[in-house]
Amino acid sequence: MKKDKSNTGWKNKLHEIIYEADTPMGKWFDIILIVIILFSVLLIMLESVKNIDAEYHKTLLTLEWVVTIFFTIEYFARIICIKKPTKYIFSFYGIIDFLSTIPLYLSYILAGSQVLLAVRAFRLLRVFRILKLVQFLGEASQLKSALKASRAKITVFLFAVLILSVMLGTLMYIIEGDEAGFTSIPTSIYWTIVTLTTVGYGDIAPITPQGQLIATIIMLLGYGIIAVPTGIVTVEFGKRSKKASGDESVEHFVHVNTQACPTCAKEGHRDDATHCYNCGSLLNE
Amino acid sequence: MKKDKSNTGWKNKLHEIIYEADTPMGKWFDIILIVIILFSVLLIMLESVKNIDAEYHKTLLTLEWVVTIFFTIEYFARIICIKKPTKYIFSFYGIIDFLSTIPLYLSYILAGSQVLLAVRAFRLLRVFRILKLVQFLGEASQLKSALKASRAKITVFLFAVLILSVMLGTLMYIIEGDEAGFTSIPTSIYWTIVTLTTVGYGDIAPITPQGQLIATIIMLLGYGIIAVPTGIVTVEFGKRSKKASGDESVEHFVHVNTQACPTCAKEGHRDDATHCYNCGSLLNE
Amino acid sequence: MKKDKSNTGWKNKLHEIIYEADTPMGKWFDIILIVIILFSVLLIMLESVKNIDAEYHKTLLTLEWVVTIFFTIEYFARIICIKKPTKYIFSFYGIIDFLSTIPLYLSYILAGSQVLLAVRAFRLLRVFRILKLVQFLGEASQLKSALKASRAKITVFLFAVLILSVMLGTLMYIIEGDEAGFTSIPTSIYWTIVTLTTVGYGDIAPITPQGQLIATIIMLLGYGIIAVPTGIVTVEFGKRSKKASGDESVEHFVHVNTQACPTCAKEGHRDDATHCYNCGSLLNE
Amino acid sequence: MKKDKSNTGWKNKLHEIIYEADTPMGKWFDIILIVIILFSVLLIMLESVKNIDAEYHKTLLTLEWVVTIFFTIEYFARIICIKKPTKYIFSFYGIIDFLSTIPLYLSYILAGSQVLLAVRAFRLLRVFRILKLVQFLGEASQLKSALKASRAKITVFLFAVLILSVMLGTLMYIIEGDEAGFTSIPTSIYWTIVTLTTVGYGDIAPITPQGQLIATIIMLLGYGIIAVPTGIVTVEFGKRSKKASGDESVEHFVHVNTQACPTCAKEGHRDDATHCYNCGSLLNE
After folding, report:
1. Hey, are the CB atoms on A199 and D222 less than 8 Å from each other?
2. Average pLDDT over residues D30-36
3. Which of A190, A264, A277, B20 is the most buried (most CB within 10 A)?
């Protein structure tokens, strides 16, 4: 079903390498990409450590240029080998990829644009694509479906927690006041959530007996209601686990089709599909 | 079944808008009310931030007056369109509504009455009424019933935790004393709960080896016994989930009648009810 | 079956009031006792707050004497009305009762004996006896049996946590050293448990990159392995809940026989028992 | 099946005592060894406390020599009585045993080698061998198998948590900057994990409103997603518990064969085995 024009030929091949992972080349490309992304994130981390940056500034900058050039080539390759480039450019990953590539170029025009480098950490999300290659996918998709099923209940729960925090935070602002660090209602709400989630920094802490009493109640509340999300998720996992135990193989060895449409980049096609379920264009074999 | 006197007519209509949510107007009123409540809470928050208040004091005061006037009108409308106003005035929501409305008026008579503004945060509880309109209700009522069923067990648990905290707090007061911040038994108990719930502010921390040993035991205890409320709630959720799975539709699409009695404001009537189950007076159609 | 000698008669009656709770008098005695114990604990708390003690020292001392005299009378009454006083005197409660009574007397002989007052907090354990009177008992005994069944697993878990803490604590001592507050191995182990249980005071915190890396691992470990006790207890609750659901009444309305043997003070007799199952002596009717 | 040469005779006996635990002598050896290991760990702890070391330096050093000599003898005995000593020497325990023995000898040659003493804490792992003797084994192996089954899911979860921490940590570094203590991206990631796991030291804490907002989100996230590992492990425990309940005896009284191959030190032989399943050599009777 392949179009035989040589021009589309190498584009299709490039598309298979960059966007898919069912050919050896495609797998290798994904793995190399992840390694470079991890390396680029490590670079940014090292640059942010003052005394390392002071000593090795030149080396780090050179390596930064290497990474940036690789990302630039990758970005254009992705645009070239897809039939509708705008689909990629304005997709979530397209924007992240763009923002990860430009900071070094921008830094010669705009001061402070180095801050954009941090966007690169979001490229780490591509790691989840690699997961598709390994047997962890079954587990991941099971986790995901359990969390999805619990979403409504957890939303209600978070909602109740937030309203509670606003009410208790306001109360603490009135009781404690400035001396103890409860300088405004937003700060008090922040403190309430720090306490309710049992994080407890201690940068702000109640000093009046009434404040400590209410703090105690908030803590016990937080200690108790953590049971709610836990209970919800556990029950959902339990359901999934029961279903799966009748057909164990399904759970662990999910077959994954990593083909992506060369036109619109949609994934999740059937193994025997010849056309994209989304835009109808021909798929690569 | 409607009384045809024109006077009661517009009162009934107003009642339907303000107290109920099954007409488009009623729904819109509820949504607008929630938006204004959220806005009024945001106003109080901004006023509590010193440098924002210093700069925009006049704007904030004007907006405060707008909100107060809206709340005043709403409050009187609620009283007018109900047949037994005292039922509303002395209800939980009636008192909250009243206290949320008066602070600005009071501030011209009494100094410090601004503190009452914080009561307004409790109006956020009306948000839960909005939930009735959406499909989250099923989830919320399921959570509620599970927590209700666990109540007795959790009370016993909290009771045991409190007695334990008093005993361990007293012990720590004797061992550590003033230097480490354990200045009195109530403070020591406060510290024990901070530790047991794994909040751990660090404003007070043991410094003697014996104190640190007992602190270690308290932490491990707290780390372990969090299993108890979690276990209780999880089991209750599990039960509910099993029941519901036989009749999935019941769980998620609970039909909700939002009619409220025009006389006594009770809710929860049957769809085919013509009289209030509480006071026997006629319901609006 | 009562012995009719008048001497034993009032002793039996007193025994019924003090040790049992199935007569109205017995119930009242238990409730009054708990109120006085709660009051005595409150007294000790107030005494420990410096500025309250400074102002109301005389009042507090008088009330302390009232409580002490009540406790003294109660202690002797308990000894008189039991047939084998040593069984009570050397029982757990007997020792607690004795230690709760003597501090004020001792304070005239020995300095610093006031510290013993704190023992009184342990008298709060009598509250659990009151629980026998109410419907919470079913819940409490269910919790207790679930925790008992999980005991072996939780012991293994705590054991592993302790060994892990010793190993990681030693490691952190070597890495961080004195500057960061890791002054000795015991202190390092204390810090490890503070971190592992997610308490996190912050009085000691790693400052070197390697130390922070290991701290991160300890935190993620602690965050993850809390699942273990929770899982154990949840499964036990689940088992109990399933058994109980077949016979709901058993769970919630456990019949409790509060008779105590007048000779050896053992509890837990059958309703139709005429003799103590432990020592064989006659029970009060 | 025993080889009758007297030379191998005492070696076999020694092997049975040191490596196995099904003879009274073997049990006693294991118990004494654990006591000495615990004592040696206690010694290192005491040495690390400055004022204890200052006062009792000589006593501690003497005891240290006693322990070292015992460990030396044990180490050589282990080598002598096994047929292939290299199997032991390069095994995990062999290396730990060696490193636990040499520090005192080394301290006369190399300064600072005392640090190696801390390795001795790892000898505590031998405690788990003692567990084989007691009925806790059943529980331990059940815990272990449940954790093993959850491994894949928990790996995916930890992976997601780490990526999330890198992204959020980078974000916080940009928002907060140096003043609040977010001096570099690695430090920010460290703070993110401290917050996400609800440890919350408070050595670093956000001070800008935006930073506090994101911190709040991180906390609620951490508070919520702890449900994931808990749910996974609970479901696994539940499965195991259900299987076991049909055959309760299996769970609690696991028969343990503590024989170890005299040639390659492998454990886990069948009771009726005469040859090692690993290297095929004869087992002691």
Report:
1. yes
2. 87
3. A190
Per CB-CB distance under 8 Å, the chain D contacts of B235 are none
How many Å lie between the alpha carbon of A141 and the closest alpha carbon of chain B?
Answer: 21
Half-sphere exposure of B279 (CA within 13 A, CB side): 14
Backbone angles phi, psi at D94, to 5 degrees: -60, -45
In angstroms, rounded to a whole number, what is the distance separating the alpha carbons of residues B251 and B242?
11
CATH number of D136-254: 1.10.287.70
Instruction: List alpha helices for A49-135, DSSP H.
Output: 50-80, 85-89, 92-101, 103-106, 127-131
pTM: 0.81
Measure CA B112 to chain center.
25
Interface test with B, best of C55, C144, C197 (most B CBs within 10 A): C197
* Contacts D157 to A, Cβ<8 Å: 143
pLDDT for D148 equals: 84
Band of pLDDT at residue A131, cut at 50, 70 and 90: low
The percentage of residues in chain D with a pLDDT greater than 70, rounded to a whole number, is 80
Is the pLDDT reported for residue B76 higher than 80? Answer: yes
Contact check, Cβ <8 Å, C223/D197: yes
Of B155, B170, B216, the CB nearest to C190: B216
Q: Please report the pLDDT score of residue A217 as a whole number.
A: 92
Running DSSP on this structure, what letter comes out for residue C260?
B
Mutate to test the interface with C, among B219, B221, B236 (most CBs of C within 10 A): B219
Residue (of C15, C25, C108, C29) closest to C64 by Cα position: C108
Q: Is there a contact between A174 and B115 if contact means CB atoms under 8 Å apart?
A: yes
The answer to whether domain D2-132 has CATH 3.40.50.300 is no
Distance from CA of B273 to the nearest CA of A (A): 30
Nearest neighbour of C224 by CB, restricted to D122, D154, D194: D154
Contact between C127 and B163 using a beta-carbon 8 Å cutoff = yes
Looking at residue C249, what is its pLDDT? 37
- pLDDT tens readout for residues A207-258: 888 899 999 999 999 988 888 888 888 888 888 877 665 544 333 334 456 6
Q: Which residues of D touch B200 (CB under 8 A)?
A: 199-200
Residue C56: its pLDDT value, please? 92
Residue of D nearest to B195 (CA): D199
Residues of A in contact with B237 (CB under 8 A): 231-232, 234-235
Q: DSSP assignment of chain D, as one string?
A: -----HHHHHHHHHHHHHH--SSHHHHHHHHHHHHHHHHHHHHHHHHHSHHHHHHHHHHHHHHHHHHHHHHHHHHHHHHHTSSSHHHHHTSHHHHHHHHHHSHHHHTTTSTTGGGGGGGGGGGGGGHHHHHTTSTHHHHHHHHHHHHHHHHHHHHHHHHHHHHHHHHHHHHHHHHH-GGGT--SHHHHHHHHHHHHTT----SS---SHHHHHHHHHHHHHHHHHTHHHHHHHHHHHHHHHHHHHTTHHHHH-------B-TTT--B---TT--B-TTT-PBPP-
Whole-angstrom distance, CA of residue C166 vs CA of residue D20: 26
The minimal CB distance from A200 to the residues C200, C230, C234 is found for: C200
Which residue type occupies A273? A
As to burial, measured by CB atoms within 10 angstroms (0-12 exposed, 13-18 middle, 19+ buried), residue C111 is exposed
Q: What is the pLDDT of residue D84?
A: 85
Q: What is the DSSP string of A228-260?
A: HHHHHHHHHHHHHHHHHHTTHHHHH-------B
Q: Which residue of D has its CA nearest to C231?
A: D234
* Domain residue ranges in chain A: 2-132, 136-254
In a mutational test of the A interface, the residue from C52, C230, C232 whose CB has the highest number of chain A CBs within 10 Å is C230
Nearest to D233 by CA among D152, D176, D177: D152
- Tell me the C-alpha distance between D220 and B260, whole Å: 36
